[in-house]
Amino acid sequence: MNTTAGTGSAAARLLAGCPIVPVVVLDDPADAVPLGRALLAGGITGMEITLRTPAGLGGIGRVARELPELTVGAGSVLTPEHVRQVVDAGANFAVSPGLQEPVVKACRDQAVPALPGVATATDLMTAVHLGLTVVKFFPADLLGGPAAIKALAAPFPGLSFLPSGGVNPNNLTDYLALPCVPAVSGSWMVHPPLIRAADWPEITRRSQHAVHAAGAAISGLITWEPCTHAR
C-alpha cells in the first residue's frame, strides 16, 4: 500500500533544481542568515541545517523568515516530533539518516518532502512500499560510493539517490554522472570552522566551485532550474 503519495514527487522536484545540498552544523543560530547569503552568492539555493546541535532549529527559523529565496531543510530528523518542530520552524524538506515509516508518514501528514537514508536493498524495498521516489544514500563513501549506487539502482529503476557522507570536490562529479543521482549532499563548503570564523568569502568561493563542477557533470543528463520550495 502506498502510504505517502506525493511525498516522493515533491522531493524529486526539490532536487531537480538543487544539485548541491550543503549539510550545515551550527553552533550559533545567528550564523544561519549570513551563511545563507554566502551560499546564495556562490550559486547554491538550498541547504540542510541539521538538528545535531541545539542551534539547528533556531537557524532554520531565521533562514525561513529572512531568506525566502533560499530553500532550507532540516537534517538529522529522527522522530515524528522532530518533523512537527522543523515544519513549524519553516523547513521545506526533512532529511533522516535512516528509513522509518512513522517519520516518513509524519512528513506526508505535514506536506513536506521526506529524504530518508538508505543503505541496503531491503531499505529500498521499504522505500518503494512507502511510495518514495527519492532517497538519501548514507554514508555513501563507506557503502561503496558511485559503484554501489549504480548496482543498487539497477533493480529499482524508479528511484533517485541523494548521496551523502564522504562526498567532496574530488568525487562529486562521479556521483552526478549517474542518471539516478540528481544531486549530492556534502559539507566541505560549510565546514564548522569556516562558519565559526565567519569566513563567508571562502564559503562563497567553495560554493561557486561546487556549482560549476555540478553543472559540468550533469550537462547532457538533466536540465535544472534554481530550486523552489516543493511543499
Question: Any overview of this molecule?
Answer:
The chain contains 10 helices and 9 strands. A 4-stranded parallel β-sheet has the order 3-2-1-9. A 3-stranded parallel β-sheet has the order 6-7-8. Strand 1 (20-24), helix 2 and strand 2 (46-50) form a beta-alpha-beta unit. The chain has helices spanning 7-16, 32-41, 55-66, 80-89, 101-109, 121-129, 145-153, 172-176, 192-196, 200-218, and strands at residues 20-24, 46-50, 71-75, 94-95, 114-115, 117-118, 134-137, 160-163, 184-186. Residues 1-5 and 222-227 have low confidence and may be disordered. 42% of the residues lie in helices and 14% in strands. It is of the alpha/beta class and 231 residues long. It has one domain: Aldolase class I (TIM Barrel).
Produce the secondary structure layout.
Elements: H1 7-16, E1 20-24, H2 32-41, E2 46-50, H3 55-66, E3 71-75, H4 80-89, E4 94-95, H5 101-109, E5 114-115, E6 117-118, H6 121-129, E7 134-137, H7 145-153, E8 160-163, H8 172-176, E9 184-186, H9 192-196, H10 200-218
